[in-house]
Amino acid sequence: MTQPVQYVVADSLGQQTTAKITLSVSNPTPPVATPQTKSVLPGGTISYTTITGGSGLATGTGLVTSGAGATCLYAPNTTTCDADNVVTINGQGTFTLDPATGVVTYVADPGVTQGTKTSITYRVTDIVGQTATSTLTPIIPPPPVALNDTQAVGAYDTNQTISPLGNDSPGAQSAPLVLSSLKFCPTSATAPFTSTNCSLVPSQGSPLVTADGKYWVNPATGVVTFDPDADFSGTVIQPVQYVVADSLGQQTSAKITLSVSNPPAPVATPQTKSVLPGGTISYTTITGGSGLATGTGLVTSGAGATCLYTPNTTTCDADNVVTINGQGTFTLDPATGVVTYVADPGVAPGTKTSITYRVTDIVGQTATSTLTPIVPPPPVAVNDTNIDDYDTNQLITPMANDRAGDQSAPLVVSSLRFCPTSATAPFTSTNCSLVPSQVNPLITADGKYWVDPATGVVTFDPDAGFIGVVTVPIHYVVADVFARVVSATITPEVLPPAPPTANPTETFGVRGEVQVSDLLANDAPGHLSIPLVLSTVRLCDVGETAPSCSAFRVTVTEIGEYVLDPATGNISFTPESDFIGTADPLPYVVEDQMGRAVSSTHTPTVVDPPELSNDSGKSEQGVAQIISIFGNDTPANAGVPFDLTTLRLCRPTDTPPACSQTSVAIAGEGTYSINGDGTVTFTPEPEFVGVATPIAYVVEDVLGQVVWATIHPTVTPRPEVITIAGQKLPMTGSDALAYVGWAVLLFSAGFAMELLRRRRLS
Questions:
Q1: Contact (Cβ atoms closer than 8 angstroms) between residue 372 and residue 352
Q2: pLDDT band at 318 (very low <50, low <70, confident <90, very high)
Q3: Average of per-residue pLDDT values in the chain
Q4: In whole angstroms, what separates CA 382 from the centre of its chain?
Q5: DSSP-assigned beta bridge partners for residue 539
Q6: What are 610-652's pLDDT values in tens digits?
Q7: What pLDDT is recorded for position 99?
Q8: Is 156 in contact with 229 (CB distance < 8 Å)?
Q9: CA 518 to CA 377: how far, in whole Å?
C-alpha cells in the first residue's frame, strides 16, 4: 500500500472539509527458479546456465542482482545465503556464484567418485521481495559404452548401410555422445583405439579400403556405407574399428563386422554333338555370354579356371587334354571355354564316353556337367508311295519317312536332289543333282515332278489320261549334316476316274404331236476332263440290249417312231395317230472319251386334254367366298399339270376360250377375282342375296391344251336380329315369335299412353 494522499474541498460559502485517498497495487507474478544438472569429470570445472538474465534458469520481475536481496547460494542444509556464495562440499567439489552475472561454477575434486553429487540450492528475489529457489546438481558420469555392430547378411555385390552409434550409449544423459567425434581406425591400427590412432573420416571419394571392400561415413548422420568387393562373400575378415567421444571427451571404441551372401550358384548345361570317325567337332563355348555355363564372374584363368576332370575322378586334368582310348580326345582352351573333340578313325557308331567339365564363379562356387560325343549311324531313306484321284496333282513329302542316324545329325532339307530318268545306281549327289521347279520340271513317261526346296514337298502332275502306278518311279537323294547321302524312290499311283452317269428322260405331248428331248441334258461325265462323246449316242432297237446298241431310228408298232439326231443328241418321238398313253421306256447308250459306256432310257407319254368340272360356292350375305376351282378337276397326266399363269375369267359376253380377264364384276351381284394360288374369290354386293350369274373360266395345261368350266356362287340372306332387354337375338323358331308378340304388345301400350298424355296437355 502506498502513502495516502490528503485533499481539501470548499462549498460556495467558503466552508472547507478534508479527506484522504488510499490505493492498493497487487504483487507481480512470483519468480520461478529451474533446476539444472550437469556432468563434470574429476578435477574438472563446469559452468551452469546463468541464473538471472534474459535466458537464465530463473524468471521473475526485476530479479535483484546486488544488495541484500541479490541472488545467492544457500549454505548446505540451511535456508540462509552463504556469506560469500562459495560453498565447498567436502570430498566432492566447490560451487561459486557471481551474483552480478548469475553464473555458478563447479570445480570437482580430483578424487571425486562417479555418480550424482550433492546439489546446491540457489535463491532469487524479485523487485518486490518475492523469492524462489531451485538446485544445481553435478554428476560425475561413467565413461560411454560402444557395442560391436553386425546386421543381417547383405545381398551379393550390394552396398550395405549401418548406423554404428545406434547401439552405443553415453555414461549419462548429461554427457551425450558427440556425432562429430566419430572417427575410424586405419587397418594398421592396434589397441587401444583412441582419437590419436583413429582419426579417419572416410568419404566415398576417399574411402577406407580393407581386404573385403570399401567404407565411408556420412558425418552429418553417422551412417556408414560398406561397398563389398565384387569377389567377396561371407563375413568380412577385416572388421573396421571406430572411436566416439561424449561431450566430456570420454572416448570408447567398437568394431563393425558385416556379411555378404553368395551370388546365385553357377549352372552348367550338358551338350551332345555328333561326329564322324576321324572327324573333329567343337562344343559350344562353356563360358561367355552365350556359353553352356552361367554364373557370376566365371573364372577363366588360375586355380579356379574352367577345367576338364580326369575320367572317373573329380580332379581337374593337368593340361585339360583327355583321351578316351579307342574313341577320341577332348581338349579344352580355358581362356575361350571351347572344348574340341577329335574322334578316332576307327571309332564304332554310338554314344561315346562323356567328359565332365567344371566351372567356378568369382566367389569359388562350382558347377559341373558333361560333354558327350555321338558317332551316328548313317541315315536311312525309305521308298515313298502315294495314291490320289485321277488328273489331280499329288503332294508327297519324301523325307517324312526317312530317318537320320541320330537326332544330333539331322537330314538337311536343302540337300534334297532328284535323279534324271537316265541315272543308274549307285544314286549319289554326283549323278542326282536336279532341283526341278514347276517351270522346269522333271518329265517322265507318266507326268511331271517338281519340288519346293524350302519344304521338301514334291508335286506330281500326272499326264492327262494316265491311270495306275507310274511305270518309271523317280529317284531322289538326301544328306545329313555330315553330308552322308542316301537315296530312295517315289512311286505315285493315279486312281481311275469315276464312271459317267446317265439318267432317264421323259416327254409329254398331245395326240399326234412330235415330242423332242435332249437325251444327254441330265447325264454327267465321271470327270470333267473326260466328257461324254455326242457322236457315240445310239438307240437300242427291238432285240438289242445296252450297251450293244446301234440304232438311230426305232419304230414300235402301234406306238410310234423314235429318231436320234447324232449332231445334237436330241431324240424325236412321233406317236401313231391313235396312240394315247405312256410308251415303254426306250434304252439308249453313250460313251465318254475313255470309251466307257453308260445307258439309260427315254419315255414319251401322249395325253388327252384335261377335264374340268363346274364349281360352286356358298356364303352369307356380304361375306366373300373363296372357291378352289381346280379341286375337282383332272389334269391330262400327273406330269402335265395345269399352268396357273394361264387362268383367265370370262365376262358374260365372252365365249370360251376367248377370255382374258383376271377380274369380272357383275352389276348388282358382286365381283370375281383370280388369286395367286389359282383360287377365285367372289365378293358379293352388300344387298345381294341369291344365285349369282355364273361365269366361265379357261386354263391351259403345260402342253397348251385349253379347257373351261363355270363358277356358280350362291349368297344366302343373313338371319334377322331383334333386340330384347338389351340383347340382340336372331328370329328363329317359336321363341322368336313369342318375342315378336311381346314387342307388339309393348308398342301398343306405349302408343296408348302417348295419346292419353297428349289429351291431357290439350
A1: yes
A2: very high
A3: 92
A4: 43
A5: 551, 588
A6: 999 999 999 999 999 999 999 999 898 888 999 999 999 999 9
A7: 81
A8: no
A9: 69
At 367-407, the pLDDT tens digits run 999 999 999 999 999 999 999 999 999 999 999 999 999 88
Per DSSP, 12 falls in state: T
Contact between 104 and 121 (Cβ < 8 Å):
no
Average pLDDT for 314-331: 97
SS3 state of residue 755: helix
**Grid cell of 351 as nine digits:** 554314344
Q: What is the dihedral of CA 550, 556, 557, 563, to 10 degrees?
A: -90
What domains does the chain contain, in order, with CATH numbers? Answer: 32-140 (2.60.40), 160-260 (no CATH), 267-375 (2.60.40), 384-494 (2.60.40), 505-607 (2.60.40.10), 615-716 (2.60.40)
Nine cell digits for residue 62:
526485476
Distance CA 471, CA 446 (A): 7
DSSP 140-193: EPPPPB---B--SPBPTT--EEE-GGGG-B-SSTTS-B-GGG-EE--TT--SSP
pLDDT digits (tens, 9 = 90+) for 686-709: 999 999 999 999 999 999 999 999
Q: How would you label 261-282 residue by residue, b for 16+ Cβ within 10 Å and e otherwise?
A: eebeebebeebbbbbbeebebe
Could you list the beta-strand ranges (E) of 382-481.
384-388, 394-396, 417-418, 442-443, 447-452, 457-462, 468-469, 474-479
* pLDDT value at residue 3: 84
In 361-473 the beta strands, taken as DSSP E runs, fall at: 366-375, 384-388, 394-396, 417-418, 442-443, 447-452, 457-462, 468-469
Residues 13, 85: Cα–Cα separation, whole Å? 68
